[in-house]
Amino acid sequence: MMASQDSIPSLVQTWLQWDQDPTTRAEIRNLQDANAAKELELCLKKRIEFGTAGLRGRMAAGFSNMNCLTVIQASQGLAKYIKTTRPEDAAKGVVIGHDARHNSRRFAELAANAFLALDIPVYFFTETSPTPMVPFGIKHSKATAGVMVTASHNPPQDNGYKVYSNNGAQINRPEDEGIAQSIRENLEPWQNAWKELIPCDILHSDAYQTLVGPYETQVQEFARSTVTEWKPFSPFVYTPLHGVGGLVLPGLCSSLGVDNFVSVPLQIAPDPEFPTVKFPNPEESGALDLAMETADKEGRTLIIANDPDADRFAAAEKVNDRWFLFTGNHVGVLLASHMLEALKATDNLSTATFLTTAVSSGMLEKMAVSEGAQFQETLTGFKWMGNVARDLEKTGKHVPFAYEEALGYMFSSVCYDKDGITAATVFLAAYAKWKSQGLTAHAKLQQLFAQYGHHETLNNYFRSPNPSLTLELFRGIRSGPFLATMEFGSFKILRWRDMTEGYDSATPDNKPDLPEDPSSQMLTLWLEGGVRFTIRGSGTEPKVKFYIESCGASRDDAVNAVCQVFKTILHNWVQVYTPTMTYDRKFPTSSGHVLELE
After folding, report:
1. Where does the Alpha-D-phosphohexomutase alpha/beta/alpha domain start and stop, copy by copy (predicted)?
2. Other Cβ atoms closer than 10 A to 313
3. Which residue ranges form the domains of the chain, and what is each CATH number?
C-alpha cells in the first residue's frame, strides 16, 4: 500500500506504474525530468481527502488531485465496502451520473468499471444529468448507493465525486470513515480498471432515459400539490449558468403549461469552461449580470437560476427599478411559508418537521413553531439534513422541506438532497400564488419580516489558502479570553457552542445537542440584542466562512448589529490571530446595505 511517508522517487514510480492516462502520466514524467521536487511533493505526498460526501478538487496529476487514477481508487474502495458490509444489498446496484464538466463522463465510466468488477449492477447515465436525479434514482430504483461526478459550482479546473448511501442521502459518519479506509486498502488498480466501459447484462446504460420521466413527473405532481389552484405564471428569465439545468427545467416548465419565459442565450447550453461568468455560482457577485441584462431587454422582472449541476436554486426580482438578489435564507423562508400554508390547508402539520442548519436563519424555527409544526437544527450540509429526515421518518414524522443558506433546498417527496429543479418549480408555483394575492416575492418577504421580525444576515468569508492557517485562527480564538469573560468586543456573550470540541455553555452537561465534529472547525455564539453568528472552516473551499444574523424591530437596527459583529470578528480575531488572511473590502448584507472597509 502506498504510504504518505514514502519517498518522492518511490511515489513517482508508483504513480507511473498505476496511471495509464497519457496526460497525467506526462505531467508527472515532466516534473520528474525537471527535478521539480516541491511540485512533485505537492501532488503526490498527500492523498486527496475523502471528505464531505466524497471527493472534490483540482483536476491534475497526482494522488492529491482529481484524476482518473484517484477516481478508480475511490470507486474500488466504495465497491469493496458495499460488497463487504452489505453483500445482500449489492445486487440492488448503484446509480452513477455525471455533469458536463471536463472529464466527468470519463470519471463516471471508470467508476462504473469498479462496481462491475465485483458483479454490482450499475444504472449508468449516458447523458449529462442534474445532480438531484442520482438521489432520486436511488430512491426510485431502491439501489444500494449512488455516485455523481460533479464539482457543483466550483471553477472549471475542478471536479468531484459525490457519494450517496442506500437511503438516498449523502453518506455520513461513520460510513464515510469506513469507505475512506476501504479506499486506502484498494489503491492498486484492479485488472481491467482502465478498460472502456463494455456493455454487459448488469450494466443498465438506459438508466437516464428510464429515470428522467419519473423524476419530471414526481416534480410536477409535487409542485401542483403545494397549491390549491394552478395560477398563471408570471414572465421570467432563466439561466443554468452553462450547466445541466437547461437540459431539464425548460422542458419541465413547458409540460406544466409554463411557456412565458426566456432563457439566457449565451448560458443555456452546458459549457465546462463557464465562459461568461467569473465563478459559476449564483451566490457570487456578478454571476447573474447577464441574466439581468436579458431580463431588462425582455421587460421581465423575475430571474430564476440554477448552479451548474442544478442542485442549487437562486432568484432575483426587480424592486423599485433595481435588482434585488434573494439570499438563500430569503428563498428558504419564502418556500417554507408556502409549504406551511399548503400543509395547513390539508391538516398535515402535526407530524411535519422542518429542518435547517446551524449556519442558516433562525427565522424558520419561529415560523414552523408558530404554525404548529416542529423544527430541528442540524450541522451544515445536506449529508446531515437528508439523514436526519430519514431518521425522523422512522418515528412516524415527515420532513416536507429543509434548506441551507447556501441556496440549497430539499423536498423529501422527490429526493433526500438539495434539488434546484424542484425548488425552481415550487418557487414558480408559489410566485404565481403570491401574484394572485397582489404580492411580489419581495413584498411577501417583507410581510414575513413584519410578522416574525426583520432578520438581517451578513454571510461571507475570509480566504484561507491552507488548512494550517484555518487551524491557527481557531486555536487563537479558543485560547483567547472570550470564553472566560463571555465578552466579544462590546457584546455580551449569552451562549458559546464549539462543535469541534463538543462544548455548549447552555446545556447542563456542557455537551451540544448536535453531534460534535472533530474533523471540522465550527464555533457559534449567541450575543445580547438578538444576534447569533457562526464561523467555520469550509470543507470544500479554501475559506473560513462566517454567518451573522440579527433580528431587529427595524431593518436599520438589524443592519447595524450585523455590521458591528463583523467588524469585531475582523479586528478581534482575524487581524489578531491570522493577519495574513485576505478578504474583500466590501460586504453586502442581505437587504442590500454594503459595509465598506476603510
Report:
1. 48-186, 218-317, 328-445
2. 30
3. 8-205 (3.40.120.10), 212-452 (3.40.120.10), 453-596 (3.30.310.50)
| 65 neighbors 43 (Cβ within 8 angstroms) | yes
Q: What is the largest CA-CA distance in the chain?
A: 71
Instruction: Collect all residues with Cβ–Cβ distance below 8 Å to 206 and sequence separation of at least 6.
Output: 126
Q: Which of 83, 85, 80, 77 is nearest to 47 (CA)?
A: 77
pTM: 0.94
- Where does the pLDDT of residue 246 fall: very low under 50, low under 70, confident under 90, or very high at 90 and above? very high
41-99 pLDDT, tens per residue? 999 999 998 876 699 999 999 999 999 999 999 999 999 999 999 999 999 999 999 99
Average pLDDT in the chain: 95
Question: For the segment 345-355, what is each residue's pLDDT rounded down to a tens digit?
Answer: 887 798 999 99
Spatial CB neighbours of 324, under 8 Å, sequence gap ≥ 6: 316, 317, 318, 442, 592
Q: Which of 129, 141, 152, 360 is catalytic?
A: 152
C-alpha distances (whole Å) from 396 to each of 352, 384, 485 are 10, 19, 44
- With a CB cutoff of 8 Å and minimum separation 6, the contacts of 542 are 463, 464, 465, 466
Distance CA 449, CA 325 (A): 17
The alpha-carbon radius of gyration of the chain (Å, integer) is 24
Which residue from 270, 138, 309 is spatially nearest to 211, judged by alpha carbons?
A: 138
d(CA 315, CA 303): 5
Q: Are 316 and 288 in contact (CB under 8 A)?
A: yes
- Told to judge if 152 belongs to the known catalytic residues of this protein, a careful annotator would answer yes
Write the DSSP string, 471-535: HHHHHHHHHSSHHHHTEETTEEEEEEEETTTTEETTSTTS--SSPP-TTS-EEEEEETTTEEEEE
Residue 10 near residue 193 (C-beta atoms within 8 A): no
**Which residues is 203 bridged to in the sheet?**
122
For residue 430, CA distances in Å to 227, 231, 485, 508 come to 8, 9, 47, 43
Cell of 582: 485576505
- Residue whose C-alpha cell is 465510466: 109
**Alpha-helix residue ranges (DSSP H) falling in 371-419:** 382-393
Using a pLDDT cut of 70, give the percent of the chain over it.
99
**Contact yes or no for 236/249 (Cβ under 8 A):** no
User: End-to-end CA distance of the chain, in Å?
Assistant: 53
CB 146 within 8 A of CB 415: no
The whole-number average pLDDT for the span 350-374 is 95
